[in-house]
Amino acid sequence: MVKNKNTKKEKPVKKRTKRVSKKNDDFKKIELELENLKDRHIRLKAEFENFRRRKSEEISKLLQYEGMDVIKGFLPILDDINRMIHTKDLSEKSLKDGIELMDSKIKKYFEKLNITQFGDKGDIMDPEFHDAMLTQKDQKLEDDVILDVFEKGYKYRDKVIRHAKVIVNKK
Question: What is the dihedral of CA 108, 110, 113, 115, to 10 degrees?
């Protein structure tokens, strides 16, 4: 009968040993998976840092040379100015024609760059866009009507580059 008692005791020990062994295997699998996840995390973090560094360098280079295209657009106008300076025909008409041509080219180029001009006589003065340099009285007109313009204003898309400097009517 002693034999039977030993075999009965051996069975639960074997079962426990199998369970412990299985739990150890599961634990090892979990440890391995955790190590893999840690390694993947480190690699992804390094990839992200490299990506961030590359993008930062790209942006820096773009900002460094961003004005180049704008400058290229003004070079033909500068060439016109130089031709005007070195021409032998300095009559008033040729100078005026040359200046009007350059003015036209600049306005077309500004249009291409989304730069708009504002501040015309007859407009209503708006402090967002206009600086009132002087006021004058004209009883025929309403208050805040622009009577004259010292300097036109300019906007790049929706941002004011320069306010128009104007004379405004005040009764």
Answer: -130
